[in-house]
Amino acid sequence: MSSDKKRSQRLKPVLDLANLNRDKAEAEMGRCRQLLVQEQQKLLGLINYQNEYHEMVHGNAVAPMAAHQLQMTQAFLKQLKTAITQQHAYIETVEQQLEAVTHAWRQRYGDSEAIAKVIDSARVQERAELDRKQQNETDDIAQMRFLSRDHDA
């Protein structure tokens, strides 16, 4: 890295890394959101299946059910209820993960924005410094012309 590089140019790799970290966090946030939607759909499927099964069992209530069939039906409904409870718990876990990933993304986004502002500020300072240098050179040339005209006269 040469020492004649401007500060804004030296900071560009830092910005690139911050943007990469932000993009990775954003991708993780997207994956987490997609997982949440999938798991919510699974839950809805389980609930719908439970309702349909419940209706089917109660719809056939006019016909007598053997004791072992009743026990199997009740055991199955209990398993279904357990699966729904577990799915609710898993969705809560995924929601917490999404919250953590979103928080991490916000931090990475903030880092990226802060570094971009520092670079913008450095560019403004570099431009002002260049303008001052050019103005000084112009003033020096004008002064030399003035002095050489006075000297020639």
Question: Can you put this structure into words, describing what you see?
Answer:
The model has no long low-confidence stretch (mean pLDDT 90). 91% of the residues lie in helices and 0% in strands. The chain has one domain (9-120): Helix Hairpins (Orthogonal Bundle), CATH 1.10.287. It has two helices and no strands. It is mostly helical.
Index terms:
153 residues, 0% strand, mainly alpha, single chain
Short description:
The chain is mostly helical.
Q: Helicity, in percent?
A: over 70%
- Sum up the overall morphology in one term: rod-shaped
Quickly give the structural class.
mainly alpha
Counted beta strands: 0
Radius of gyration from the alpha-carbon trace, in angstroms: 35 Å
Q: Classify the beta-strand content into a percent band.
A: under 5%
**How many independent structural domains?**
1
N-end to C-end Cα span: 51 Å
